[in-house]
Every structure is written in structure tokens, then in C-alpha cells.
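STRUCTURE:
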């Protein structure tokens, strides 16, 4: 059997030896080398991750098959805290109550807004920004464990753009010089430099103008491509059928000692952990991730809920397994560049 035909159901039932055999086959197909086959836990579930290095870059093996995707809102009922957060309460679902301003708890105000139709309204809202339940037939593939910032690259300190920024550093602790947040119409190359407290430059980056077509053409030239929307959702959920990859509930706490989210059932989810598939995804709400459909982006809302001070309910919905906001996708597709947007290379195995 070709490694491209390995299904998720088969993969989740493999032992370490069987997973290693598949990983070696995928590595031969992609011209890479297996660097790790290990058991990974996420959100109370576990699966083997096969990491394959191709031309110096780590990729994870993602099995395929007939995969259930999307979310059925009729099967989901919010908790009281989730309802209150949806209705505008900042205290409901607050992960950091110890740092909250000394203001009156606003949950009673939100509770007064609840009506018999509130749960239906919430379900309709979720349905508008998640994909519908469906079955997708997917081939297995390799996906880069981390996505790139399009057009952004590390730079040497003697690059002319970087050297000019270094000259702008002023006495006093100025950690960063240069701005990568640029107008959509800007087509120049810009930079940013990081300094230590003594004013010594420690790292630098360049941000160049790039477009969706340029990114896809460059990937195609190396036999790679962007993930389809279905592949992205599949790799993110990895068989989970709840609202989120970790289940149906929004986190209700945070453990500072290990930077982990705490779910109502006591399960912990490390915020820096890769998904069950081994891919780091949806970890920055400001950074959309591109897919093979230029009108479909995933994993972020451009920072709208975070920067806009929305309640926790809105912030967590961005991390729903089936999250897709058509307006966000159309906005990104209309931009004259994709600088800073995330792009994840995929290597087909068929």
C-alpha cells in the first residue's frame, strides 16, 4: 500500500513499529529522512507523530482517508459561562482573574440579557463562521511543522536595509527598531532589528513585498503547494469532532507554571504545543494562514477580536476546528500583497 493511502483511522491504531515503517516510506517518497517517531498527547488524546526532514526542514506525516469535517451546531450546547461571555461579559471565562481590574463582576448584567432564543442565536453565529459537516476524501501528505511568514526572512546585520536601521538605535533600552506592519500599497523591502540592553544588535529580519501568486508559484517550483482548506482543517482537528481540537468546551483557566490552558474537565493543553498531528497551527490570532483557495484563510482573524477587546467567547471561536470566516478570506484575497501572512508548504505523497 502506498503511504498516500494510509488513513487516519489506521494511523491512530498503529503501534510505534508500524508508524515507523510508514514514516520511512513517506521519507523515501519525499526524498527526506525520518528524524522522530514519537507518541504525542494533545487535549486528552494521543497519536504518533512522524517527523521527516526534507532539505533541512521538518515536516509531519498527516494521514488521510474519508474524513469527517465541519461542525454541526445543533449537537452543541453552551455552558452558562459561555453564554454570558457571548452576551458581552468580560469576567465570564476569564483566564486571568487575578490580573483583572478591580471592577464589578459584569456577569449579572450579561445574564439579564439572556432570552429563550439566546442559545439558538449562538448556534447561528457559530454556524456562520464554521464549515458545514461533510466527508472529505483525502490522500496522506507531509506538511511543514511550522508555517512561514510570507515575504519575511532572517537577514544578516550587514544588509543595507538592516545596517541603516542599526544606525537609528538610540541610547536607552530600545529593543526593536523598524516596523514590519506596513500599508497594503507599500511594495518596498523593510526590516526590523532586535537589540540587547546594551544596544548590540542580536537578530534582524526583512519583509519584502510578495503576492499569493508568487508564493504558490515558488512552492510549485519545488514540488510543493499550500494545503487545501479541507487538508488544513483535517490536520488541525485530526479526528476530533467537537467544536475545538480538544473538545467542546472553552478553557476556563490557565496554569502559569507550565503555560497550559485548563479545560472544565481538568484536561490541560499546553499553549505552545503542536496539534495532535504534530503541526503548530492557529497560535497567533493576528496571522492568517493561506490555503490552496486564495479566498479561504484559516487559524486567525487578523487580530480583530484580540485587539478589539472582545470577550473570551469570541477569542476562542477563532480556534474552532472548523473556523472559517468568508469575510476574512475575501479581505485577504483583495489585498495587493500577502506579506506577513502565514504559508505552510505541503508535499503530496501520491
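SEQUENCE:
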Amino acid at each position: 500500500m502506498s503511504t498516500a493511502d494510509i488513513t487516519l483511522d489506521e494511523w491512530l491504531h498503529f503501534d510505534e513499529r508500524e508508524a515507523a515503517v510508514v514514516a520511512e516510506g513517506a521519507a523515501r517518497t519525499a526524498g527526506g529522512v525520518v528524524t522522530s517517531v514519537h507518541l504525542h498527547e494533545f487535549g486528552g488524546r494521543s497519536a504518533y507523530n512522524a517527523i521527516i526532514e526534507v532539505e533541512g526542514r521538518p515536516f509531519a506525516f498527516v494521514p488521510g482517508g474519508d474524513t469527517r469535517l465541519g461542525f454541526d451546531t445543533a449537537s452543541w450546547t453552551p455552558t452558562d459561562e459561555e453564554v454570558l461571555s457571548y452576551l458581552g461579559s468580560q469576567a465570564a471565562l476569564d483566564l486571568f482573574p487575578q490580573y483583572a481590574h478591580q471592577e464589578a463582576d459584569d456577569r449579572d448584567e450579561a445574564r439579564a440579557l439572556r432570552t429563550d432564543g439566546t442559545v439558538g442565536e449562538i448556534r447561528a453565529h457559530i454556524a456562520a463562521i464554521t464549515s458545514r459537516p461533510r466527508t472529505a476524501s483525502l490522500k496522506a501528505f507531509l506538511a511543514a511543522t511550522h508555517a512561514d511568514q510570507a515575504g519575511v526572512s532572517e537577514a544578516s546585520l550587514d544588509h543595507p536595509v538592516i545596517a541603516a536601521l542599526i544606525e537609528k538605535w538610540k541610547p536607552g533600552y530600545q529593543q526593536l527598531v523598524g516596523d514590519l506592519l506596513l500599508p497594503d500599497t507599500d511594495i518596498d523591502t523593510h526590516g526590523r532589528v532586535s537589540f540587547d540592553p546594551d544596544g548590540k544588535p542580536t537578530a534582524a529580519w526583512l519583509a519584502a513585498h510578495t503576492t499569493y501568486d508568487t508564493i504558490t508559484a515558488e512552492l510549485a517550483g519545488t514540488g510543493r503547494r499550500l494545503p487545501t482548506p479541507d487538508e488544513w482543517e483535517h490536520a488541525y482537528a485530526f479526528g476530533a469532532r467537537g467544536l475545538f481540537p480538544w473538545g467542546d468546551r472553552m478553557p476556563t483557566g490557565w496554569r502559569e507554571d507550565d503555560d497550559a490552558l485548563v479545560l472544565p474537565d481538568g484536561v490541560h493543553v499546553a499553549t505552545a504545543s503542536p496539534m495532535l498531528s504534530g503541526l503548530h497551527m492557529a497560535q497567533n490570532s493576528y496571522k492568517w494562514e493561506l490555503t490552496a483557495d486564495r479566498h479561504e484563510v484559516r487559524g486567525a482573524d487578523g487580530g480583530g477580536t484580540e485587539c478589539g477587546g472582545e470577550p473570551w467567547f469570541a477569542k476562542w471561536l477563532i480556534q474552532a476546528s472548523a473556523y472559517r470566516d468568508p469575510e476574512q478570506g475575501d479581505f485577504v484575497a483583495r489585498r495587493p500583497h500577502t506579506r506577513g501572512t502565514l504559508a505552510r508548504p505541503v508535499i503530496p505523497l501520491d
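REMARK: The CA atoms of residues 32 and 54 lie 4 Å apart.
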